[in-house]
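Researcher: We are triaging several targets before committing to wet-lab work. For this one, the compound of interest is zinc ion. I'm pasting the protein sequence and the ligand SMILES. What I need is the predicted three-dimensional arrangement of the protein with the ligand bound, expressed as structure tokens, so it can go straight into our comparison scripts without reformatting.
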Amino acid sequence: MSAPPQTRRSPAGKAGLQDRTGSNTSRNITTIGTPSQLLLPRLEGVIKTGKGWRARCPSHGGKSASLAITEGDNGTLLLHCFAGCPVHDVLGAVGLQMGDLFQRQHYRNMNPAERSQLRQAALIPRWRAALDVLRHEATVLLIAASKMGDGDLLDDAELTRMRVAALKIFDCGEVLNAR
Ligand SMILES: [Zn+2]
């Protein structure tokens, strides 16, 4: 028998709880379980660290705790093998998939305000992109206005570009109105 001396089943779930500062997340942990509760019991040599855990990498083996596990917002796990194993391989070695790193039940457990907040947050990158487009198109229009102000006529290409600017601005309106 060559059973490893370290505990297979780590107390990580509880340790994770103690680490949390959020008030509503603990409710989710006790009711539905987190990705860390799914992953950690499948790993060997789990050690609690400041931001998460270290464990032996199930993909490449080895004795050192080369797998770093960090718990992010909503219990989402970030994995990093210092020997360079892809996350996909690390998960595959313990029968898990990428989706298991995320708290899939979380959304279902949210109240309407929390759901709305999440949807709004997902829109922010699109809003930023739309604002960048608006800024650029405003510059195009400003240049055209300056040219007309100087008494120059716009040629066909410039007129077309102004129409394109208008279309882009309408598109931005769609993006910024999205909910
Ligand atoms: Zn590895």
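Researcher: Any quick observations?
Model: The pocket of zinc ion is lined by residues 57, 59-60, 66, 81, 83, 85 (CB under 6 Å).
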